[in-house]
Design brief:
2 copies of one chain form a homodimer. Chain A folds into 2 domains: 139 residues, 60s Ribosomal Protein L30, Chain: A, CATH 3.30.1330; 167 residues, Phosphoribosyl-aminoimidazole Synthetase, Chain A, domain 2 (Alpha-Beta Complex). Chain A is built from 9 helices and 11 strands. Chain A is globular and about 65 Å long. Chain A is α+β, with helices and mostly antiparallel strands. The interface between A and B is large, with 80 and 80 residues. Strand 1 of chain A pairs antiparallel with strand 2 of chain B, so a sheet runs across the interface.
Chain lengths: 330, 330
Amino acid sequence: MTRASKRPGEFELIAKYFAPLARAEPGAFGLTDDAALFRPKAGHDLVVTTDAIVAGVHFLPDDPPDTVAQKALRVNLSDLAAKGATPRAYLMTAAFTHTVDETWLKAFVRGLKRDQTLFGLALIGGDTVATPGPLFLSVTALGELAAGKMLARAGAKAGDDVWVTGTIGDAYCGLKILRGDGLGLGDKERAALVARYRVPEPRAPLGPSLVGLASACLDISDGLIADFGHMSDASRVAIQIEVEAVPLSPAARAAVDRKRVALADLLTGGDDYELAIAAPASARARLAGRAAQAKTRLTRIGAVAKGRGVTAVRADGTALAIARTGFVHF
Amino acid sequence: MTRASKRPGEFELIAKYFAPLARAEPGAFGLTDDAALFRPKAGHDLVVTTDAIVAGVHFLPDDPPDTVAQKALRVNLSDLAAKGATPRAYLMTAAFTHTVDETWLKAFVRGLKRDQTLFGLALIGGDTVATPGPLFLSVTALGELAAGKMLARAGAKAGDDVWVTGTIGDAYCGLKILRGDGLGLGDKERAALVARYRVPEPRAPLGPSLVGLASACLDISDGLIADFGHMSDASRVAIQIEVEAVPLSPAARAAVDRKRVALADLLTGGDDYELAIAAPASARARLAGRAAQAKTRLTRIGAVAKGRGVTAVRADGTALAIARTGFVHF
């Protein structure tokens, strides 16, 4: 039928698989009403973000369904973390293909459930449709934080330090491996990199604790250089990155050492979902303390200066050649 | 690239076409940050809903792009109206096909802009992706209303009146016409019905004024009988609809009179996006007054009784035969 009415199968799908994910949140009405009720905490702002992932574009069609669910949710949770917000709820629109069966759905819901528990949020609404095209998931995530405290891309100041969470370039390597290039690595290293591509680690424990310390923050989805470029544009400052200071995982480091990937590719590859942070030097000790509390690796990789654009400089003073100039401003 | 990074074309697309739609709302940051800031009014609840429309399922691939945009937005605004909420903001995920060119996009954005002005809300976030599958639009809409006042599907009580806004079955007829069945109607009548299918009329002016008067409310998307069935289920009451009282447009009436469509089809066809309302008889005069203020047709079509399920009864006392029993409880 070319109409918006739900097919009987859709009601069952929602009741059986998705309504249980909404149980913890009374305002979701078990996904049986037209809309959800969301009561923001008094004195708090809401932070809202939406991101979609498409099979063959943002994940591989044969990725395990629980990891597909987690990626759909986590790319949004990463945005909330970058704004200093604590996740509260999400809505999901799913366009399922005919290949989606009970087994797939059960694993998919298991992935959502796991992350709801881990990150402390509930499903409060959604829509499912059938599509002859690729599987498609769109998530809208709601978080909150004290009024007026949201971290932004703008705000970095000359003299600030530049920091990054976790390690950079793992997802880039993971995708290469899934496409058949083993990068000369062992099974365990390859599995670690693939996992980083499939299931990003949103820095939800750290993000809210950056409020009051960071002068600017965003999440790295387009690539470290490109996203610091966004911070540079929004803050109207120059950002200098010390290439050798950028933290790499042992597996990614091994691939670079064996010349199977270029360092420049790791810095531009994207899909990292780490936080890019600017903060005054006076905040160093407190930042380190909060990162330790959040059990999150945090590395100082450069500094903010007057001017515009991003420079990635080696220890010997030479600039790293970055091919994808469309994203980079020197 | 199989990664979440934005292609350069996507930045331009957002900057050129979508960022202007976010201009009125400072918390949208011109769609350049990771997330939007939304400051709820003090003492208000947020109402959140998400609905997706897919080409070939919820609209026709050659529908005018401005009407596609309006439908994507309006099916969500209809949900907000049914909950008594006033629209404030929306986020949109668009999966565009290669057939989407500048001309299409301009018209699409024109449709969004028109409705933003008409309904008083702003775009605060979104995502665009390319898809080889059908064009797909997912909207999340945020509305608000005084805390604790949200209208629900549950709440209808024996003795209540049952009301419906606008006219029923027009979209069903409109889709039939788009598929080549003229229903024996003239050009003007056919155009009116097609317009009702393509661009539903969310009852945004009336919805918020039902707060404090309606005991239950939902929007009719699955069909009048099916959706009163949902009210019956949620409220644990029986709902009796007087078939002859259901308001039809002159064009739909003409199609019924000429026996080109069955009355039962209009009552089950769906896509009406009218409000289904239950309210105590003591509220009749006030309801009529608010409908007049909102310039919205409001018709009493039945009553709530003890029991369960929906009955659709003719003036002669016979029940209307409804084929789609999957949706209907007698």
